[in-house]
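tool_log.txt
---
The assistant was asked to compare two proteins side by side. It first ran the structure predictor on the initial sequence, then on the second. Raw inputs and outputs are pasted verbatim so the downstream comparison step can read them without reformatting.
(1)
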Amino acid sequence: MAEKKICVPGQRLSVKDETYVSGNGTFERVGYIYSNLAGVVDIIKKNNIKIIEVVNPNVQTIVPAHGDIVTAEVTIITQQYVKCLIKCIGHKILKRHFKGVVRREDIRATEKDRIEVFKCFRPGDIILARVMPITEAHTYQLSTAENELGVAIAHSEHGHPMIPISWNEMQCTKSYVKEARKVAKIIPEKIPNDIVGHLTEYLY
């Protein structure tokens, strides 16, 4: 494989093995590494491993990777899945948002056959989720099955902030009305205050 070359989105760059691994600006699929954007291929050598990255100074290169914890805003819910927009990867706020999907069976770790999606999430909720193995180039499969994952920020039907009161309920700070949610555990330790303030802007 050449040390430097120009590539386009979706272009296959290398096999994925013990020597070559996926880095920023790339994604893995069926044993190969592909470019996630147009740019220049860069190979970073670390010990006996070569990390393949795609660099474009005009384009955001950080992309969600398998195992990452992301912050996303719920946009659509159905009986089978939740669609959302990924806005942060870890503590890094993204300039460009990515599409994510939480399937019904990936919402909780237990009682999966009894899950009702509308009792776990609502459009506008800010959630914490983990990125699952990537199967599609433009949509990321997410999971909130861990206790620390789920709804981090929510507003009631009347637009007032809500606070968690249990693992499956949040309460409006004005009307005290309770609403069902899949609540993330220990929010302050997971989302820095500057990110909370930034993301809350999307709810108005």
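(2)
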Amino acid sequence: MTVRPREKLSEGDDDPVEAMLKKSGCLELHYKVQECIATTKDWRKCQTEVSDFRSCIEKHKNVNTRNKS
């Protein structure tokens, strides 16, 4: 099963969460988490994917925090 991006709501309206994840560079990892959960039906079996996604988000937050200082 492949998880794909949501359809645009209307012309030019991206999902705000997907837009944020794309900007952070973590969108593909987000899709991997979704795909794992859809395949296994158990998020506990997706800890590697969740950990990779969490690390990516934390890295992005740290970069943004330093840039704002």
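---
observation on (2): The mean pLDDT is 86. The chain is about 65% helix and 0% strand.
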